[in-house]
């Protein structure tokens, strides 16, 4: 891989042999057309990278090959590669091409990367990793919200809870659920926590898209969220912290049940 400091090629990048299907357009793949063709192409290539078709260190097919496979212009390929480079998945050098970066350089807080990660065969591992992070962060963030929240922020939390109660579909319920937790992160008063809302939103969307939630569980989950909202509203940090831990434990059980 090229030496990034000097900009000169260093040791050769190991070329990993990839299954032929990885560079073949699937028959049922939508034809890419329109102004956002490069976005669609970036999504297709990004998904293949995240699911492991192209392991780190792999040199990707060149522009001509991608152009042929997906029946798009080379300029669309170039724009797609630029998008993936901006997300940390790829690096590129003239006369060498584009290669897959190590996973630790991927921007896992990017909404697209999260979507590809959660749609990969390893999505159960992804959801468990997100839950571990939530256990580390959300209880303390919620305790801070109970101490620091403004009236406006409290209204946003309460409104999200109300929307959860009034939701008529699982999608509406999930969207309100994510908005509830994101509003709490904002109310914590720590700006560094806010970007984690994208991670939580993605995890909830992909979890509940694959898990059938029984009515009893929905009522129980709603009660847990009501306890969180009440604790923040009454500005009781310790109670808020414990309430979130109970809600996270309930989500852990859903993931465990789904993975059986």
From TrEMBL:
CDD domains: WHTH_GntR
Tree of life domain: Bacteria
Domain HTH gntR-type as annotated: residue spans: 35-103
Keywords carried by this UniProt record: DNA-binding, Transcription, Transcription regulation
GO molecular-function terms, A-Z: DNA binding; DNA-binding transcription factor activity
Protein name, per record: GntR family transcriptional regulator
């Amino acid at each position: 891989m090229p030496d990034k400091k000097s900009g000169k090629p260093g040791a050769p990048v190991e070329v990993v042999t990839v299954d032929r299907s990885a560079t073949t357009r699937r028959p049922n793949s939508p034809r890419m057309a329109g102004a956002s063709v490069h976005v669609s192409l970036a999504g297709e290539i990004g998904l293949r990278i995240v699911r492991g078709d192209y392991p780190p260190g792999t040199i990707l097919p060149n522009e001509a090959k991608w152009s042929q496979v997906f029946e798009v212009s080379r300029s669309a390929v170039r724009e797609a590669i630029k998008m993936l480079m901006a997300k940390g998945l790829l690096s590129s050098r003239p006369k060498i091409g584009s290669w897959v970066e190590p996973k630790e350089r991927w921007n896992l807080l990017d909404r697209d990367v999260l979507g590809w990660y959660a749609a990969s065969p390893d999505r159960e591992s992804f959801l468990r990793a997100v839950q571990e992070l939530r256990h580390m962060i959300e209880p303390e963030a919620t305790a801070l919200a109970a101490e620091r929240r403004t009236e406006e922020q409290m209204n946003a939390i309460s409104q999200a809870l109300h929307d959860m109660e009034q939701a008529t579909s699982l999608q509406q319920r999930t969207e309100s659920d994510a908005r509830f937790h994101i509003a709490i992160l904002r109310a914590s008063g720590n700006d560094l926590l806010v970007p984690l809302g994208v991670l939580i939103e993605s995890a909830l969307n992909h979890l509940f898209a694959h898990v059938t939630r029984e009515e009893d569980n929905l009522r129980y989950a709603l009660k847990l969220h009501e306890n969180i909202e009440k604790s923040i509203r009454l500005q009781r940090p310790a109670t808020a912290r414990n309430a979130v831990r109970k809600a996270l434990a309930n989500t852990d059980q859903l993931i465990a049940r789904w993975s059986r």
